[in-house]
Every structure is written in structure tokens, then in C-alpha cells.
Hints:
Elements lengths: L3 E6 L2 H11 L4 E6 L7 H17 L3 E4 L4 H8 L10 H20 L4 E4 L9 H15 L2 E2 L9 H12 L10 H7 L1
Parallel strand pairs: 1-2, 1-4, 2-3, 4-5
Helix pairs in contact: 1-2, 1-6, 4-5
Amino acid sequence: MKPGLLLHICCATCAAYVIDTLRRDYEVTAYYYNPNIYPKEEYQKRITEAQDYCEKNNVLFIEEPPDQDRWFLLTRGHEDNPERGERCTICYEMRLEKTAQYAQKNSFDIFGTDLSISPHKDAKRLNRLGKELEKAYGVKYLEADFKKREGFKKAMELSKKQGFYRQDYCGCIYSRKSIE
């Protein structure tokens, strides 16, 4: 029997390649917790597509309510941070901690995230946070940098083949403002 992996996902574009890769070794459950995504229409677009992908591929999908008030509270004062700055660390930690909590409460063997597939995300920082949460919650963290070995390129090819919506910002209101 394969170990149960709770995988935090951000969107179908990033999740599909990562899930396809990990399914060889794990029983993957997709965990959608993204209180950073703004506006509501963007959130709905991303979650609907992720749910559809998981349903078509027989992957259990769990949505955690997005608690945007807490996200705004935690990121207050970091509105002008650049992408990959301190605001992103706060956001990574918030989402990974919720994933670790759910994994612990529901007896998953391991937890992880698809975020490292993006060249805009700091895999070393994600992995450091994940390892800290592993110690705090007693659930193993899957260290990964999915963009390596052409992972990002393969993810984009799969996304195009599947006809996935591809956003042009990470999801938060502040990253959206930087592209407007």
C-alpha cells in the first residue's frame, strides 16, 4: 500500500504535473487552501479547474475554507514586498501549516505542496518551512523542487494540452497590482 500524501495545491496548472509525478509513489489527496487568491472570481476559476482535474483523474479533492481575514492580518505591513519577499514567506507558512494540521488530524503519512513547480517560488524556503512544520506536527514533509529536471516546462506543456487557464500572477492582490 502506498503512503498517503496530502498535497497542498494552488491551481490545476501547477498541480496536474506534480500529482501525476507523485502518484507513482503515493496515494495523493489534493488539498486546496489558498486564502491569498484575489479576487473572488479568480479564486473560483482556480478551484473549479483544480476540482475538475482531480475528479477526472480520481484524486480526492479537499477544499479548506480560505480565511482571507487572517491572511490580510498576517500580511499587513508587507503590501509592498516584492514577489519572493517576506509576504510570500508568511503566505507559504500559513498555507503549509494548515496543510500540516490537516495531515496530522487525518493521519496522513506525509504532506507537501506543489508551489515549488513555479520559478517564482523559493523551493529552499518552502522546504525549510515544511521541515519546521514536520517537527511541530509530527507528519513527514516531502522536500521537493518540482521545477527541476524541466518540471516547470513539462507542467506548462501539460497545462496547454489540457487547456488549463494560466494566470499571470501568483494570486494575491499585491502581486496582481504589480502586473496592472
